[in-house]
Amino acid sequence: MNAPMNATQNHADVVVVGSGIVGLGAAYAAVRRGLRVIVVDRTDAPVGATIRNFGHLCIGAQSGEARRYADTSRELWLRLSHDAGFWLRESGTLVAARHDDEIAVLEAATRSGGMRMLAADELLRLAPLRAEGLVGGAHIETDLQTDPRSAAGAIVRHLMSLGVEFRFRTAVTAVTTEIVETSRGSITAGSIVVAVNHDVDQLLPEIAERRGVVRCSLDMMRVAVSLPRPLGAPLLTGWSLLRYGRFTGGPEATALRERLHSERPDLAALDLNQMYTQLPDGTLIVGDSHVTAVAPSPFQPEAAFAAFLTEAEELFEMPAPRVLERWQGVYAKGPGEFVIESDVPGVLVLAATSGIGMTTGLGLAEENLTATFGWTPAMEGTS
Fold first, then answer.
1. 94 domain residue, yes or no
2. Digit-coded pLDDT (tens) for 42-65
3. Looking at CB atoms within 10 Å, which of 24, 183, 278, 283 has the fewest?
4. pTM over 0.85
């Protein structure tokens, strides 16, 4: 994948720094417009937040700018799944409610459409949950699910087939107008996109400091389970309703937060998003906790994983799961949901800074490259 460097090879219409989902979205937007694209990344494949997540494309739970990017991303995900040949399902998302205040948050959210309330018996037909304590739920209709580990690699291969050049194991040391300095030499470019997620503080520290970008680390796990029937869609809980823009704006969410934090300060201390996705092989991704710092500790407390398993066993109708994998994810975190900077002529810096990169990243790249560089929309039918 790393071609020898020479003068003719060291120029591209667009150079993308970073091969995470935002960088892949930028490369996809550029190559569909017939441009020569080089993607540079210090690793040998996408290994960051793009593969360390639930594979849950939580489109219908967003609001405002994030919802616009998510809606654009949805169409791009569907198209890429077809063209690149990776697993994606139009499952929607299920939400399990175990308290009346969770129902109140969901009912308020249904007013904007694309989501319907579920009675407890209907939810039980769609998810293998314990009936005890379940009072109802909802189905968010627009959401998608994929396997992030296989999807990222498939997108890279598809972009390569379209002519995108990937220069892996190549570190970018500086970015200026029309020039990307790397550990293998300089590349000139008509346009440059920096999509390095939380590592923006390593390459462009002044932007990270000005925008308050730090790191959020999260603990997750994958377990083998024996469920009486498959989980029909990604599953959110009351804890999840405290995290997504569609649910957090009203007094209902304030009341829910106060109760959950009062009743379970141990889970609140983990900054829990209790959610689940089931992969095609039947295993279940479980999580997740959140810790924010400039440089989060790499040491993972066992208390978090113990809490994940305990809560899963209380929610699902199943025997104790068997842990297959544990991992730590890291993503950029900031006061806003996105960083979009174009102060340097010809250079666009993009990051999702609220943990919704997989949901919004393709649309974030598509819309902002088009606007910043004055591109016309990609022609329909162009791969």
1. no
2. 999 999 999 999 999 999 999 999
3. 183
4. yes
